[in-house]
Each structure stands twice: as C-alpha cells, then as structure tokens.
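$ fold --in a.seq
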Amino acid sequence: MEIIKIPKKEGIIDRTTGKVLNRKLRVAAYARVSTMGAEQLNSYESQKKYYYEKINNNPEWQYVDIYADEGISGTTDYRRASFMKMIQDALSGKIDLILTKSISRFGRNTMDVLKNVRLLRDNNVAVLFEENNLNTLDTKTSEMLLTTLSAVAQQESEKISEHVKLGLQMKMNRGELIGFNRCYGYRNENDKLEIIDEEAEVVKFIFDKYCDGHGANGIAKMLTEQGIKSPKGNDKWNDSTIRGILRNEKYKGDVLQGKTYTADPLSHKRYKNLGEADQFYVSEHHEPIISPEKFDIVQEILKERCGARVNGRRIGNVGRKFAFSSRIRCGFCGNCFTRRTVVGKDREKIPSWSCTSFAKNGKENCTDSKTIREEMIKEAFVDSYKFLSLNTNFETEEFLNLMQDTMNENNKQDELERYKKEFSNIKSKKSKLIDLMVEDKISENDYNEKVEKYNRKLEILENKIEQLKLLAEDKKSISEGLQKVKELLNSKDIMDQFDQEIFNAIVDYVIVGGYDENGLIDPYLIRFILKREFDLSVPKDVPDEVVIQNNKIDLNSNNVLVDFINTRKYFSYERDEN
C-alpha cells in the first residue's frame, strides 16, 4: 500500500471550480468606538488610517472597505448596522478576509461571535483577530480557542457591566443626574436642568387644564389644534404623552433615578423598575415648573381616574378608585370635582368633594361653589333611586333590554382585533428595515425616518388597543350592575344604602350646584344625569317640589366612556345640606 500526500493549494480557491484564483485577497476591516465624541472620533480616525495603510501595504491584498459602528455595545449585534452590512457583503462574495482588533470588538456575546464566524467560514471568509493572532480558517486550533476566548470576553463584559452599574448607583446616591434623557421643558446644561420658557408654558397649560377637569385626550387635541409641536416634534399630540408629562416628577423640581434597569448585560434590554433594583429620589434637585402642591393634586386626580383592580380587572365604571371620581361636575363653572378630606369638629375625617377650580384658586375662579360631603351625594342617590323606582311608570325589562342592546351594538371586539393585527404588521415591517438597509435597498437616513414613523404608529395603536380593552372591562362591569338593577327592581325591595354597581350602571355623571326654579343660587343642588332615555312619566299625585325635568343636554362624547346617546334626560333631586 502506497500513501501519497497531496499538498494543499496555495492561494484562494474557487469553491465552484476548485481552481486557484489568480487575484489578490479582498480584505476589509471592522472597528467599533463607544461614541462619536471628539476623543472617540480621533480613535476612529486612527483605526481607519491603521487599517487602510495595513491593507494597502500588503501586495497580496486588495482594499475593500472599513466598517465601523458607534455608540453600540458589542454584546448584541442586531443594532450594529455597519457590522450587519459587512456580513452581508461578505456573504455576497465581496470580501475574503476581515481584520479586527479583538474578539471583544467583534462581539462579546459568545453565541453571536461563534454564529457569525461559522457563517463566514462556511462561505470561505476568514476573520483575523489581530490581538490573539487567530485566523478562523485555521481549523486546527481556531474553534476551541475561539470558544474559550469568547467565553472569557463574555465574562469580562458581565464584570464590566457590574462595575458600571455600581458606579452609577454611587452617583445616584450622591444625587448626581444620570442618563438624562430629553425632558420637555428643560435643557441639560453641564448636568444642571434649566427651564425652556416656551415649553414650560405648555407644561403649565397641561397641568392647569387637567386640574380644571379636562382629560388627557382632550388636552392633546387642544395642543394639536393650537399648532404646538409635541416633544418629539410631531404635529399631533397623543394622550399618552400628556399622561407622561403629568406623572413626571421633574416638573415639581424632583428627580427619581433608577426608573428602569438592565436585567441582562448581554442583551442590554431595559425593564421598568418595579422594585427589582434600588431607586433614588432626589427632592428639590432643580427649579420646578409646577408647584409641588399642584403636582400632588394632579397625582390624586390621576389615581382617582386610574382606579383600583380586583383579580386583575378594574372595578367600577372607568375603574374609579372612588365612586364619584371624574363623575361630578360643577354646576357653575363646569369643571370636575376632586375628592378631599375635611376635618370635622371632633377631628373626624369627612370625605368631601370640591370643584377643582374652587379648590385651586378659591372664590376667585368659582364664586358660588361649595364643598359637599360625599355621604350627602350618596344619600341623594338612594332617595332619587327610590323615587325613580316607585313613582315612575317605566317598564323595567324594556329599559334593561334597551341598555343591553345598546352595549351590544357598541361591541368593539372586531375593531380591537383589527388594531392588534395592524400593530403586529407594523412591528414586522419595522423589524425588516435593518435587512433592507444592509442590502443597500434604503439609506441610513431613510431607515431612521421609517423607524420614527413606525414608532409613532405603534404608539397610537397601542393607545387605541388599551382604550378598547378598558372599554371591554367597563362594559362587563356595567353589565353586572344592570343585572343587579334588574334583580332589585323585580324583587320590589327598596335600596336603603348606596350601591356603587347600580350607580355606575345607570348614572352618567352628577352635577352639583346650580340655580333653583326661582333662579336662586343653590350650591347643594344635586342632579343625576342618566345614561339612557327613561320613560319617566310622573303620576299626578307626585308633589310639585320633586320634579322630573325633560331638558335635553348636549354632552361632549369625549367625557362619556360608554356613549349611549347624545341627548339624555336627567332626574333632578334637590336636598338641603342641613
């Protein structure tokens, strides 16, 4: 038996024909810098010069390009546009060899490094890691050494991440401003927040309108109609932007640091901090735009409107924390009422409601409004309901069926599914943009514009989906209330105490304060505006002082979650506070 060694061919092999190509090795280089600041820019230019000279000084090499990414960690590759373009060019047959300083420059995530190196090697493209003198086409040692070095690089990345995290926590503990993102109304000058007067006026407008009873959606429409640009420079404001401003503690001069945290140093994905990591609250950190008192009032209103949840589902209409949250309007100025606690003579805490305009500015803005006890409104509803059920001639079953039919007509499930599908489609389109860019089908500017456009659409759709989900929850709550009304009316029992489910089912909102039949001011006049047309035919023996008024009221549908009909009749119940 004779064994003859066939030596390997020197040069580049054409894998289609098996012949040695009589051409130079096409060489590219990959560099990565932390930022494009002055110091790092010099580093980038130095790397470019180094690789340009190294490639062109080798007579067997042909210069292709130098690929570089800025401000992006090596622990993930899906955002590294230049890196991905280099891989695409290599797979397209434009590159034979890639030079890079170290494994950490190529990627600190072990799996990503190995994935890309193997992908390139399968297509006969080598990667030369200069610091380790490692050529990935050298199969003798490359795979084992590459795996070991990548694991070490990953461990170092995690260690660095822990050091950075510890350093940031120490700075937060000292009250230093960390990771300041653009905050509408402020600019960051040498780590000090300075007020931008024009934007600060918009912030004040938002807080004032919300205190006056306007919702986030309504305020967003006002700003859009006024032609004021949103914080992102868009023509249209979203209600989520308004709520974000209303909740931002920076507007009262404080800073909460550590709102998000990084769970995995490899993916760098950030999560909202719900207690998984330390937070640092710095009071009186900078000049406020909104007074702490007004900011706290807004937080109370937000809590009342947001409401509580039971078993993951919001309770009550619009999920209100209190029975009358966002449901009482001032009969004099039209603003919403806010809940407050009044201390009585015996230091007893009495839940009460006041006009927000009156509570904020006193009689100057709402002359005739007065604070009213919560118990008084509840008693008025119980008495009104008794009168409604005992003295009006309407068909219980017909009324309840009418209410249920209207809710069925307003079924938004199909609309919800349509929005969800659209949301999914846009996310898919957004994820494909990076492929289009690396394939040179779109420019980097087009990529950024399209990403911004898709982000705006996703934000709008997310808001719509959330609103429809809440509407579905509230409709379930109302249905339960209607069933309770039906059972109560059919049983002929008399309601002797306030029932929030029944109140939510039949009352749209309450008007407190107004003018009696003689035109005299009565701050304790209470009117319950019903959600549906009632056939309220009053028997002749009903006393004159108890009146069913058939006035039609034109309502702004933005203030009505379940908008059954645009005109409603209301039941007026008058009660003296004493």
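$ fold --in b.seq
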Amino acid sequence: MRAVFVCLATIIFSANLLYTQTTGINKYHILSDKVALTLEGGVTYTLADFKKAEYSYFGRLLGEYFFPSTQIGVWGLRGHATTGFLQGSGGASTSRPNLTQFKTTIISFGGGVEYLLSLSNVVMPYVYGGAAYLYYDPKDDNGNRLERNISKKYSRHEWSLIGEFGFRFLASENISVNLGANINYVNSDNLDDIIAGTDNDIFFKGFAGLSIYFGGTSDSDEDGIKDDDDLCPGTPQGVMVDQFGCPFDTDNDGVPDYLDKCLNTPAGILVDTDGCPVDSDGDGVPDYLDLCKDTPAGVPIDTRGCPFDEDEDGVPDYRDKCPGTPTGMEVNKFGCQLEIFKKELPELTATILTSGANFDVGKSNLLPGAKIELDKLVAVMIKHPETRWNIDGHTDNTGSYSLNKRLSYERALSVANYFVLRGIDRARLEINGLGPDYPVAENTTESGRAMNRRVAITLIDKDVKSQPPLDIEYDVKSERHVGNMIFTDGNQYCVQVSSFRNRQRAENELRRLQDLGENAFIVKVNLPQLDGIWHRVRIGYFNTLSEAMQRRGKVVR
C-alpha cells in the first residue's frame, strides 16, 4: 500500500512540473474553487470467509470541494454517505456447515482527500484516500441476524480505510459522468459473522454516477487571475501576466513584452506602438540619442544622428556647396568661404579722460569738457558701426580699495551711458572698473596720482571682419554643436554660456548678461539621458564663427 501511495505522489508531482515547464501559463483548472454534488451507484464484491464471493449493490451521495488551482491537477475534499449490501454463498469455510449464505447491510459516513488530473478538457483520472465510520449487520438468506451477531460477540460499528481510483468525463463545465472502483479495508473479520484465518474481511466497489458542479473561479481570459482581481481583462491566451493579470512589461515603456520589439528601452524614453524609441526623422538614431532630430530622409548621418560634415565648417555635406574648406575658414550658409571686408579706421589708439577736468571730485558724473572729447569718438563709432570698444576706469591708490574699484566702474559706466545716449549700441561697449590695479605713473606724487585717475577708451579690433547680416531666422531644431559650446543651424551662430536645471538660476544669469548689453535668451530642452529639463542660457546671433568665438572669449567665465 505504501508503494502505491509513493508511486501516485511521484506521478502527481511530475505531471504538475511538466505542465508548468511546457505551458508556462497559470490558467485556472476547470474545477478550481467549485463545489460538487455527486450521486453514484454500483456493485459490491466481498472477500470474506465464505467459499464463494458474490456481487451485491450499493448507492452513495458525495459532497466535494475543489481548491483553487492553476496547475494541471486540482486537490479536493470529499464527504460521503453510503448504504448497500455485502454477500457471499457456498457455505462457510469453517465448522458451521448449516450456514450457506450471508447478506450484510452496510451504512457508512466518511471523508478524505482526492486529486484530479486533467489529461484533456474532457478526461480527468483521479485518486482518493480517506476513512469512514462503518455500520454493518450480518444476516442469513432469510433476513435473520446470524448467530454471533445476535449474541453480540462483536460490535457492529467499525472504522474502514478507503482507497479509490476512477475517471470523470466532463459533459460540460458543470456536469461530469463518473466511473471508478475502490477498496474498503475494515478493521474486523466479522462482516460475514465468522472469524476464520488471520486476515480481516475486505470488500470492493465498482460504480458509475453523475456529478453536478457549482460556483468556481471566474477567469474570462484564462490568465490565472480571477476576474475580480484582474486589472487587464481580455489578455490574449498564452500571454504571461503579472500578479495583477497584466502582460509583463519588462522595460516599463507601456508596451507589453509580447508586443514589444525593443525589450530593453531605457526608462522614461518615449516609444512607438512597437515599444521602440521614437525616431522622428527615420534616420535610424532614436530621438533620445539624436542630436539632429530633423535630418532629411536619405541623408547619411553619424552615430549622433547628424549629417556628415567632412570639412567641419558647420555646414553639413548635403548642403555644402564648397566641400573641402580648409580648417578654420569662415563660411556662409552654403559652406563657401566668406569675403573679408576691411574698413579703414582712423589712426586711433586710445582716448584718455583724466578725472580732474572731466569728472567731479570723488564722483562719476561727467563735466561738460569731457563731452567734447567723447563726441569726437561718437562720430567715429557712428561711421564704423562694426567696431567695438573697451571703456576702462582707473583710480589712484588713495583710500579704500573697494571704493576705488566701485568709483572706477561708475565712471566707465557714465562714459558708456553717454555713448548710448548718443545712439551707440550698448552691445559694442565693454565696461571695466579696474580701480588702482593698473597705474601709469607713481602714486607717490600728486602729479602721478592725477595721471592714474583716468578713463581709457580703446578700440578692441582694428581689422574688422564683417558680413552683411543674414535675413533669416535661426533654426534651433536643425542646429549642431561645432565645439566650445558654439552652435549653428548652418546660417547663424550662437554661444551657450551656461546651463541650469533651476529656472530661477537661469533667469538670474540671463539678467546679468542683458545688463552687460548681450542679446541673451533661454532655450528650454528636455534631455531624458540627462534626467530631464535643462535651461540653456545663450547669446547670439552671429553671422560668422569667428564672431561667435570672439564673443565667447569675452563673455564665458
């Protein structure tokens, strides 16, 4: 008996393991969480102490409950009530020759555990093991109690052990036809009223019947998650799901794995319906890696998604009318070298305003005499609008260093404000308060200190390269980086001064640059590979790369 149970346990375990490895699907068993009411009847066959074992009949009523299961098999609990008869004939194999036949009435109540295995959607073999209370009443062929029964030589109440094997054939989800047989081992040798030999009496049953099932687990999409708990009803059959009934989405991009053609998309990246990163221009480089998102169709690109620029002049090859431009040459929007316009400037090195004749003592407001000299410079500036100028304020070393620095800056600013008042663009002027750091004479004498108290106005570039301004709007969508944080759209250039996550810090930097006369602006960009939104502070725009480079050298700290 023990070997039989070990064999059955091995079969059950192997079947479940094979089912899980083969299907990988947690579909609920058809009897999962169901209650069954079963009526069965059949024949009994008794091995007792009479010479001839005979068949009789019985009937039973079963109540069953099957546990929730997503395996190929399902466990259940059973309770039963049975009534019937056992009989034998041919005379007893003892010294009671007058006793030729017995017929024992049996009534039992019991329960146990069963396991059903689904071989298909219809056929389910099962095994059952349990115990039962057994009442039995041995009688002769006339219906009279036998001798030892009458004299109460034994108790008519015993326990029996039951082992059962059978098949259930599903006619529908709620009805099955059953066939089976069991063995009943009784802890008594008195089923026939006779004690003989060393073995107890046993009897067998063979039966057929009908089961009706109620309730059960509702799982419409058969994914192993009850409908009440399923957050994704209607999942296609065969698709693996998580604990909520939703298809697995390993990279969390919103496209389930069974539809996802790009299973390892980085977090936060926008994807298409196939689960692949969006590639707006179709160049093979996804947008989150593409530095040039609007490349025309068919244009060869590098690993950054940008069109090739073999001569590195800032104009991509597909638009470059002059390929092979030497390194460092300035080009126009067609990639061709710019002409250099040289404008003659007057022989002018510097204009020096000393403090005594041009400023109030210890103050920054201009005296009338200073304006005569400044107007001469205004005329030059108006005639040569491409020029740029330094305005440097200086002091002697008398007094507080910080006060001297501030006074020198305020005097330089007064000069600049006068130029602006006369129509000069503020962006052409560089203002510096240098304090006592750059003396031109000794500070040990009054005449030396007077020479050191001055404002110097000097030309920044004597040879000026210029290009007529381009009447075109800067295209930020097609821009590319040409080095040193200088960007171009192929026509104009701008310089990136700084970049901040915090908008307020970017605006503070913007105001600082605008106070210096720069055409500053903020570009807001979303960079998933750098964890989100950045605020880029830039200045521009410039017609040539050299202009952008010169401006960067002055502005970028």
